[in-house]
Design a protein that fits this description.
This protein is mainly alpha-helical and about 150 residues long. The chain contains 7 helices and no strands.
């Protein structure tokens, strides 16, 4: 992602995404949290650094990296039964509108993460014992059949 002025090394932000995917596959939730924090730091650096002094190599819109970092961190907290921490992460990727830049790509990514946040919020509520959310969750799955597998895996 960044060219380090001291070493001229380029680190791609997508490499961090791939590391998160690997850690998740191996159910190394502490590593997922750590890597997701690194991804968030890298995305934040891209946003806040003068574009003349940083070289960014990324495949996706910046909103994806913010959303994905919070999504995966939230899933890891959920898997560790740290539901309040998971809810906090969900609150961050539920509204990424501050990253909207009038492009279709940003609009699509922001809408996707909003949808994921709804599913994951309901999942957390149910895991925390709020059985009143069960019917709402079932309705959500009916309206979003592509979310069935992720809903069942929680």
């Amino acid at each position: 992602m960044v060219i380090n002025d001291n070493t001229s090394e380029v680190v791609e932000i997508d490499t961090i995404v791939n590391f998160i995917k690997m850690a998740s596959t191996f159910e190394n939730w502490d590593k997922v949290i750590s890597l997701s924090t690194s991804l968030l730091d890298s995305a934040t650096e891209i946003i806040h650094t003068d574009k003349n002094t940083i070289q960014t190599k990324k495949k996706r819109h910046i909103s994806y990296y913010f959303g994905y970092s919070y999504l995966m961190k939230g899933i890891a907290f959920q898997k560790l039964s740290q539901y309040l921490e998971a809810k906090e992460c969900i609150s961050y990727y539920s509204d990424l509108s501050w990253l909207y830049d009038s492009t279709e790509e940003s609009a699509t990514i922001i809408a996707d993460f909003k949808l994921f946040s709804k599913a994951n919020s309901l999942t957390i509520e149910i895991l925390m014992g709020n059985r009143e959310k069960t019917l709402e969750y079932v309705e959500f799955i009916k309206e979003n059949p592509d979310q069935v597998l992720s809903g069942l895996s929680h």
